[in-house]
UniProtKB/TrEMBL annotation:
Gene3D superfamilies for the chain: 3.30.70.2860, CinA-like, MoaB/Mog-like domain
InterPro entries: CinA, CinA-like_C, CinA_C, CinA_KH, Competence-induced_CinA, MoaB/Mog-like_dom_sf, MoaB/Mog_dom
Domain of life, per lineage: Bacteria
Signal sequence segment: none
Organism of derivation: Paramaledivibacter caminithermalis (strain DSM 15212 / CIP 107654 / DViRD3)
Name of the protein described by the UniProt record: Putative competence-damage inducible protein
PANTHER family, alphabetized: NICOTINAMIDE-NUCLEOTIDE AMIDOHYDROLASE PNCC, NMN AMIDOHYDROLASE-LIKE PROTEIN YFAY
Family statement drawn from the similarity comment of this UniProt entry: Belongs to the CinA family.
MoaB/Mog domain mapped to chain residues: 4-171
SUPFAM superfamilies per UniProt: CinA-like (SSF142433), Molybdenum cofactor biosynthesis proteins (SSF53218)
Length: 414
């Protein structure tokens, strides 16, 4: 099945909002084995919308639209599709009653234009919108499928995952399943080179790589008539990837690095404390986003200034004067000082220059030291990073997570 995603809204063309809907839908459709041929965006103009919709019908089996289903005059997607397909708009009473009840519940008068949302193209499948007032709909016409979804991402995602995805799966004679392997400390080109023979000869399953914020994912997708048949396709590939690149893999189940690390800490009853400088609590924020981390995380301190490093971590002032705040020696002293104070199993420190100013020839922007102190030893990881301030801070935080993961594997599990 070949698909075109058609997003509607002048605000998208003007750059006032980012088109996250198309990215979400492409990812989901790809995992269903549906080929996304085009992303098309058109403003709130009925003539241009009708033309591009009719063009898409010529080269697509499936068209998914987002946006233009609201109550205002510039919400024209439903009307334009109905006109292009010569279908009458019919009042859908359950939707109309739902909209009326919504306005009663918030103690506001329902204006007449809100009734517009309750009109649906004749002979459509109505998609009840639990997150908003504008329903979506599905039209099956001349061996084509048109699915129209509201524009707000929260509403669109809910409708797609709960109603559209099961519908599309029911149209396939095969089941489709994906496994996602997560890597760290390997580039996309290196990953493809390591798996070149598998990728070149892929049929079923198929492999695809994705890079984002210093992390890398490999999606393995297979189709078959039963789950057992699909697993029979996927598992040998996963085993071969593990054999070749196992040391670079941190998850076989599409988990984030913070989810993996938090689970390792909790499951192994390991306590941890953090002292951050240039990341300013970003690492702590990533860990505390995971439910249950209070069982492992003792404390997190932002020791930004030299005074804070001295007062909170007992870093020797001589170390700071002789080596500077951004140094291997200071990172070690920060981690060791934190270990003495907290007695946590793992104590981690971060100090660096995130920029864009503050660097020198000897210590340029992007120079970062991460220190880890355990009962057995203290070791330091030096990073020389490129990019803007946010990129440097984020990559430092995920690098620290990966160091925690490796420390647990080396000192607490094996």
């Amino acid at each position: 099945m070949n698909c075109t995603i058609l997003t509607v809204g002048t605000e998208l063309l003007m750059g006032q909002i980012v088109n996250t809907n198309a990215a979400f839908l492409s990812k989901e459709l790809n995992e269903l084995g549906i080929n996304v041929l085009y992303h098309l965006t058109v403003g709130d103009n009925p003539d241009r919308l009708e033309k591009i919709f009719k063009d898409a019908l010529e080269f697509s089996d499936l068209i998914i639209t987002t946006g233009g289903l609201g109550p205002t005059q510039d919400d024209l997607t439903k009307e334009t599709i109905s006109n292009a397909l010569d279908r009458e708009l019919i009042l859908h009473k359950p939707t109309y009653n739902k909209i009326k009840d919504f306005f009663i519940s918030i103690n506001r008068e329902m204006t007449i234009n809100n009734k517009k949302q309750a009109y649906i193209p004749h002979d459509s499948i109505v998609l009840d919108n639990e997150k908003g007032t504008a329903p979506g709909f599905i039209i099956e016409a001349d061996e084509k499928i048109i699915i129209s979804l509201p524009g707000p991402p929260k509403e669109m995602k809910s409708l797609f995952l709960n109603l559209v995805k099961p519908y599309l799966l029911s149209k396939s004679e095969f089941k489709i399943k994906s496994k996602i392997i997560k890597f760290f400390d390997i580039g996309e080109s290196s990953l493809e080179t390591a798996l070149e023979d598998i990728i070149t000869n892929q049929t079923n399953p198929t492999l695809a790589t994705y890079a984002k914020d210093g992390e890398l994912s490999l999606r393995i997708t297979a189709k078959g008539e039963t789950d057992e048949e699909i697993d029979g396709f996927i598992n040998p590939i996963m085993n071969e990837v593990k054999k070749r690149l196992g040391k670079k893999i941190y998850s076989y189940n599409n988990e984030t690095l913070e989810e993996v690390v938090a689970k390792m800490l909790i499951d192994n009853n390991i306590t941890i404390s953090l002292a951050e400088s240039c990341t300013g609590g970003l690492l702590a924020s990533k860990l505390t986003a995971i439910s249950g981390i209070s069982k492992a995380l003792d404390r997190a301190i932002v020791t930004y200034s030299n005074t804070a490093k001295i007062q909170e971590l007992n870093v020797d002032e001589i170390i700071l004067k002789e080596h500077g705040a951004v140094s291997e020696e200071t990172a070690a002293a920060m981690a060791q000082g934190l270990k003495t104070i907290t007695k946590s199993d793992i104590c981690l420190s971060i100090t660096g220059i995130a920029g864009p100013t503050g660097g020198t020839l000897e210590k340029p922007v992007g120079l970062v030291y991460i220190g880890i102190a355990t009962d057995k030893k203290t070791f330091i990881k030096k990073l020389s990073l490129k990019g803007d301030r946010n990129k440097i801070r984020n990559y430092t935080a995920i690098s620290a997570l990966n160091l925690i993961r490796k420390t647990i594997e080396m000192e607490f599990i094996n």
